[in-house]
Specification:
Number of helices: 6
Largest sheet: 2 strands, antiparallel
Strand order of the largest sheet: 1-2
Number of strands: 2
Shape: elongated
Radius of gyration: 18 Å
Order of helices and strands: HHHEEHHH
Length: 146
């Protein structure tokens, strides 16, 4: 009986979960803004990517990653991908870069190509954040037990 109790992860402290959600949102937003700046070289597009990725990254991190059964790496990968999609949408809406894609076939191809290049970066960032959260949660729960 004691083995099953020890195998179960301890529930996250609500304050730690809020901090983890904020850090994940900020990191994913900053990475999306940096990538948008490098790809498009437009400050407004970077702002749109920051807002889009930060909003969805923060909202999706709680239900997809911070599960009652523990930190879900698959949810973190999905959160990274969703943050990238909304970063593209935000960059297009705020930076007005999406209007050029509709009329220019070369720009549409470049946008699609860059999506598949940047997707592993955002997924890896989400998984890395989840692993860091898992490590910090284990340390904080062991310190609380002492």
């Amino acid at each position: 009986m004691a083995e099953t109790e020890a195998a179960r992860p301890a529930p996250l402290d609500p304050r730690f979960a809020v901090k983890a959600r904020l850090v994940a949102a900020l990191v994913l937003a900053a990475l999306a803004a940096l990538l948008a700046w490098q790809i498009l070289d437009r400050p407004l597009a970077s702002l749109g990517a920051f807002l889009g990725a930060g909003l969805v990254g923060g909202l999706a991190w709680g239900p997809l990653v911070l599960r009652p059964s523990g930190i879900a790496l698959g949810g973190a990968a999905l959160t990274g991908a969703l943050a990238l999609v909304t970063a593209y949408v935000g960059a297009g809406l705020i930076g007005a870069g999406g209007a050029r894609v509709v009329t220019d076939q070369e720009a549409a191809i470049a946008l699609l190509f860059s999506f598949w290049i940047v997707l592993p970066v955002m997924v890896a960032a989400g998984v890395g954040l989840a692993l860091a959260t898992r490590l910090l949660a284990a340390r904080s729960s062991s310190q609380a037990a002492d």
